[in-house]
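Predict structure. Chain length: 1408.
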Amino acid sequence: MTPLSETEKKLGKSKRSGGRGFMAKAVASISALATLAGGMALGAVAAPAAYAANAPTTSYDRTLGNPTFESAREANGLAKEMNYGAILHAWMWSANTIKAHMDEIADAGYTSIQTVPMSTIKGPEHGMKFTENWYYVYQPSGTGIGNKVIGTEAEIKAMTEEAHKHGIRVIADAVINHFTADWNAIQGEWKDSSRFHTRSEGGCGDNGTAINYNNRWQVTHCHLLNLWDLNTENQTVANGMKDYLVRAVADGVDGFRYDAAKHIELPDEFQTHSPYYDTILPNGAQYQYGEVLQGDPGLNAPAYPALFNKYSTNGGGNTGSKYGGLMRAVVQDKNLDAGRVGSLQGDGVRDNQLVTWVESHDTYANTNEYSSQLSAWQIRMGWGIVGSRAGGAPLFFNRPVGSGGSNPRFAERSSLGDAGDDEWKHPEVKWVNKFRNAMEGNAEYLRNCQGNNCLMIERYKTDGNSNNDGVTVVNMDGDKNLAGMDTVLDDGEYVDQVYGGKLTVSGKKITSGSVKSGKVHVFFNASNTPRASLSVTGAKSFKTDTTQVTLNARNVNNARYTTSEGDSGSFTDGQKITIGAKSAVNTQITVKLTGTDADGNQVTASETFTKKDPNAVVSYTAYAKKPAAWNKIYAYVYVDNNAAAGNVIQNAAWPGELMTAESGACDGTADQVYEIPEDIIDQAGDDPIRVIFNNGGAGEIAGNKFPGDSATEDPDDHVDAAGLLIDGSYVWDGNITSGTWEEASCLAVTVDSVKINPSGTINLDLANGATTQLTATVAPASAANKPVKWTSSNEKVAVVKNGVVQGLVKGTATITASVGGKSDSVTVNVTGEAPVVHDTTIYYPASNFGANSTYLHYRIGTGTWTTAPGVKMEAACDGYVKYTIEGTEGGQIEFVFNNGSGQWDNNGKKNYTASGANVVVENGTVGSVAPCVTVVPVSSVSISGGSFSLKAGASRKLSATVAPSNATDRAVSWKSSNTSVATVDASGTVKAVKAGTAMVTATAGGKSASVKVTVASGYVAVSSVSISGGSFSLKAGASRKLSATVAPSNATDRAVSWKSSNTSVATVDASGTVKAVKAGTATITATAGGKSASVTVTVTAGSPSQVSTVYYKPSKAPKQAPLLWYRVDGGAARSVRMASSCDGWYSVKLTVAQGAQLKLVFEVDGVMDNNGKSNGVANGYVGSGAVLAVSAGKLSSTAPSCGSPSQVSTVYYKPSKAPKQAPLLWYRVDGGAARSVRMASSCDGWYSVKLTVAQGAQLKLVFEVDGVMDNNGKSNGVANGYVGSGAVLAVSAGKLSSTAPSCGSLSSTTVYYRPTVASLSAPSLWYRVDGGSSRKAAMSLACDGWYSASVQAPASAKLKLVFEVNGVMDNNGMTNGVTNGYVGSGSTIAVSNGNILTGVIPNCAVRK
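Prediction complete.
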């Protein structure tokens, strides 16, 4: 795009993007070039390299034994020992990608980088996507070096050289146990059957793949996942593998991770000696560890690291899979108990021989593992623990971009060869790594900080020098003040390197310091690293009279500072100085630092700070016209200060924040408004602020943002357009290609204040919906219509939209309303437990397919899909449509959207999946916060217990009930009319101050209730409380009212409160009525005036239960079955839908206590049959026993005399043309409620289903075929249906017959299938016969990778086949959201490599 002539100076050009991930395009270009450069040579078998005579032959020679490497390692502060330092698992990164990120990797504190396997491979077979493609790198086809994922051997060498320049070492994943399952893909001399175990020698079933992990012989000699298992007892095999490893070391590799290491026998584990490990391990690497997953009986886990250590100069180890599993449990249940997490659980393996992790590529990528469901936050919490421990070499697994957590396991937003997401360099992760490096060799001490949700990992030397000690605090709880806690740290101050706070220790006690909720804090003094550096940190602008800035000096001697205000002096690292007192507003203050490094060289730094007018309001506003092609418009705002990607000052991650729609904004020149946050303006100082408008899509795609990127022929020369400069109010005209960005002509209205109502602290209970409505009042009146921006400080706890707050989980969040540079905040406390989700409402933008033409096609769990196109969604609000799926019960839903005419949104053919009460899909992202909330007003508030008395100094907690239970604003605020007499806090606790009276009022949603509190001057204390009758017994379901006596009789506070010690056994209400729940004991306590008395209630099992069958015959046939409302022994009202019985009767069975009295009311099409009323209360039909039958207003204990016993009616149906899926039968029995059932294919185009009904029952039938109803026409708008009775009802060509169709006999079809990838178990066959219902058949191994299954079908039937392999469907693709399947007929059908062959039997040659 040609820059705008009028704004060229403001547009500029920048090598940093205004969009997400500033390195994304550069990495993509490097990856593409790497693939092209390798070409077909990547798949060739490389000959052994000729080693230079003077080249280092071991990793140690070129790293720890090399002064240049050591200088770089020390300069970056990296750990010396590989068996201690942090490892970055650059999973699926190419060598070029790793090389491009080496500066960042070093800065993030990683001692080592672990790569994917480097050997030649088959594939990847499906481009460079992750799904069903990533595992090819773990299936070698030879021992050449280089493949499509890692790159060429030359690129690998260049990458290792770059790593060594930074003091970083490289660990290569090596697959030494097996080769690919495709024999034809195995290359060169390796294609020799003597180099592999036979399929029978391991003694495993399923062609050598069914491994019994209790049998070590099978573990080491059978074929893992059908992959060809190397004959590791063969010396030739060992020699060939050693040659590969030695060549890799010569290319710069420093260590190896051995895949499936436990599947290779130890040297003398069996009768015959195995030379394998003793041959391959002396290869020149300095660190080697094996994938030895724990838990197998007979596994000698410690023997493997002993072997690796024997042949490695820097140690060897095993994978700590058991501790990884514990870490994943810990971050999910937030129980960080120090005793629980203390042991690394090595099963006899020493701590320094373990590689630890929170997750690995196996726990993340394999479909039978579920670490992918953990959020990035949970992973960081776990990393705070494993990365800070003294033991283990922690490995950080890098997930693909945008993947995991609430997103799909593989979102496919990056490709094989690309870098993953940025979590590996998150500040918390980075500083944990640096802490680890600085604490190398230190002891550790684990302790909890004020509860098991917070853990401190202290590392110390006890040498009196605080610069050698430190502590990581992992806090999964609320904010905490650590003052007063014991510690092993030496006295001194410790700086939080992540968030800038300080922790002070004196006398082995923490005297000051705090940690924030949900954060990893890393307290240590990083100045003992070799690198010399000076810096000044603090807010670049301030509106107070003075501010403090922090002076930092790392490895600097004679550190001094001077300021432009005339102050100077020496300082130590982390020292704070105060500036601003001598400067006027709107002036700049410069702080300069000087010092010398260890070699005497001068080191300098300076920073400038601006003192601003505290009364001045700086407001930058961006106005825009939303382009017609965009559904949404976002503003991405950033400070253009050339900061590193992780330190960019921005309003939010790409795409930024949604603009606010405002019709006629800025004198009609715009319809969208965004105010630049004041904190960004303050942080920017003199640096320019820029804005990029976008539609929420990827910035590199043309048409998704403005300004757009300039096009170039060479991808390496691609330059991202800088954002639009904003330093006031500006308007964009909405033209994506050649728009204008001009200073706004409209006058900005200055905001004086904004005030949230209600104010203060708001308590929300999850059990009651956890919602409240906030309003913001903006002054002056001329600014009242300005859009208010609502934000939450913790959207995991509570979210806010248009002032409606929705609590999500227990915790605290601050809700802020901002407008025109002014803001106000309230605190929201979310408590309680959320109720079980029964239904799920899905929201979707109406603009995609139209408010009246959007369809939802879904299934619950693995159940049946709706009939395409699905159900029609209805208009919701704010431009959304919605549909509520009933009966989800918190389960997962799989779904897609369409317009009913072939246009689909199926999430890029991956379908959407979600669960919960609300699901919102927008721009391919699945959220959980409803876009619009219906505000339900409060009707009343009541306070339990009534008025009461207290003595001065006493207190009582009140509780308020808000009605209705689903009211939006349920937050209760409390107020006392006379705080000099009695006060009340936000939780409702009243405290008596002095004699007198006060009214305590509870308010919610504009409604209030009050009670009178009397603080007595002549207060008479309660001396005792007694409960009459003593301890007692009750049967489950029974109740008893207790009475309590308060002495003396003139005691002031005689109000009695009741409590049960075990409400699951017995409950007690405010009046003292005890109700037995289940067998057990509970203590019932009565309290008054601070005195109590208790009795024990013993609950025994209640009387035996009985089944009461309730029959009801309406006066006329209802539209749907009646609804029965009933009470058991006067209990709570319940309801149940009745079912059609016979002769117009409906019935339902109730299980109740034997002899229980039932009160019955029947609801028929919205009208109540309640047997009349007395004093306004329904009489109901009252009775007990096995049978209660109601007809014509009378109750009887005799069951209705219905026809003969039930019969089976078989319904047949033949559609006019072959359907896409089997028809759905809708039917009513004797005019009862409509029911539905999917029919099954029968024969010759017929479908059938069997119905069990009362003998002689009349059936009304309607058939739904691919969404179209065959209802035999309508009369007065009501479907006629096909009406009949008997053993057979057959419908064809609009006619009903009582004769079953004459079908031919069934024959057998044998289906053969050969998976393209190794299968963990035999595939499953899913099939439909002539478009009928889906059925499943188990397949069994036939031969040479083929599996087979036999199915019964008519000779001419058409079969549609789908194969399930390792939980993944091979469905031959989809069309319009519907699976294509493999369709054929005949006695045999064979499917292989996506092709279907009919009438062919695979010619299997069993390999010996």
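Summary: The CA atoms of residues 697 and 1079 lie 60 Å apart.
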